């Protein structure tokens, strides 16, 4: 079961997300919170695997709460909820360590799939708007000519990295490369270690900032 904590200051939004997730056989909504401060407190009590975190909330916003959870070493993975449109403050959520991004207008199937992917340890984008967000965030200076940020990777690890940059899950990468999912997980771990990256979020950002993303 995937244990989920829902954090949103709007009662109807929390109720809608709870209803959406609880009809799925592999989800267990273990708690709700109305702001970031409650989220940090509830996370210690109900030990969720994934926290669906709204950004704009009273008392403590979602980004500050995500940082607090990260600094406390809490193992829960955060999936940020945004309003539609590109919002500057969501850039900070990437730095804070969020592992997924959902637009509140995303389809139900997208929300469910994104939460599952985040729970599985993957970086997940739920919606075209959020994909554009990461592309815009990572549009920093390109490396100098002749530099290859992936030089430390083997040919197969490079393939895996580039497929990660496309947003493919481990299962999808395995299917694309005709290998087992366990093999892909091993490659992903080695890629992150060799490149000095914390998680798949940073891998995607590196791909964009290096001009390697499709």
Write the layout of secondary structure elements.
Layout: E1 2-7, H1 11-22, E2 27-33, H2 36-46, E3 50-54, H3 62-71, E4 77-82, H4 89-96, E5 100-103, H5 108-119, E6 124-126, H6 128-137, H7 155-165, H8 170-177, H9 181-195, H10 200-209
Parallel strand pairs: 1-2, 1-3, 3-4, 4-5, 5-6
Helix pairs in contact: 2-3, 3-4, 7-9, 7-10, 8-9
What's the SSE pattern? EHEHEHEHEHEHHHHH
Distance between the termini: 34 Å
Number of helices: 10
> Can you tell me the CATH class of the largest domain?
Alpha Beta
Helix content: 40-55%
CATH architecture call of the largest domain: 3-Layer(aba) Sandwich
User: What does the largest sheet look like?
Assistant: 6 strands, parallel
CATH topology of the largest domain: the name is Rossmann fold
Low-confidence stretches: none
Residues in β-strands, percent:
5-15%
Number of strands: 6
- Return the average pLDDT rounded to an integer: 84
Descriptive report:
The chain is α/β, with parallel strands linked by helices. The protein folds into two domains: 2-137, Rossmann fold (3-Layer(aba) Sandwich); 155-209, Arc Repressor Mutant, subunit A (Orthogonal Bundle). Helix content is 50%, strand content 14%. It contains ten helices and six strands; from the N terminus they run E-H-E-H-E-H-E-H-E-H-E-H-H-H-H-H. It has helices at residues 11-22, 36-46, 62-71, 89-96, 108-119, 128-137, 155-165, 170-177, 181-195, 200-209; strands at 2-7, 27-33, 50-54, 77-82, 100-103, 124-126. It has a six-stranded parallel β-sheet with strand order 2-1-3-4-5-6, with helices on both faces. The chain is globular and about 50 Å long. The model has no long low-confidence stretch (mean pLDDT 84).
């Amino acid at each position: 079961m995937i244990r989920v904590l829902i954090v949103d200051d709007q009662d109807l939004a929390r109720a809608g997300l709870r209803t959406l997730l609880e009809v799925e056989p592999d989800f267990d909504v273990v708690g709700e919170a109305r702001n970031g401060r409650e989220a940090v407190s509830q996370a210690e009590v109900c030990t969720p695997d994934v926290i669906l975190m709204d950004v704009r909330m009273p008392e403590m916003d979602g980004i500050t709460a995500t940082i607090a959870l990260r600094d406390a070493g809490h193992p829960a993975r955060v999936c940020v909820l945004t309003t539609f449109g590109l919002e500057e403050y969501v850039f900070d959520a990437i730095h804070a360590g969020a592992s997924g991004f959902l637009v509140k207008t995303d389809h139900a199937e997208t929300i469910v799939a994104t939460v599952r992917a985040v729970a599985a340890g993957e970086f997940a984008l739920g919606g075209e708007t959020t994909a554009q967000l990461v592309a815009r965030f990572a549009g920093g200076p390109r490396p100098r000519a002749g530099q290859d940020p992936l030089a430390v990777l083997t040919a197969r690890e490079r393939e895996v990295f580039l497929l990660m940059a496309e947003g493919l899950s481990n299962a999808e990468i395995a299917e694309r490369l005709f290998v087992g999912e366990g093999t892909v997980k091993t490659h992903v771990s080695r890629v992150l270690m060799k490149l000095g990256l914390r998680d798949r979020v940073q891998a995607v950002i590196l791909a964009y900032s290096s001009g390697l993303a499709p």
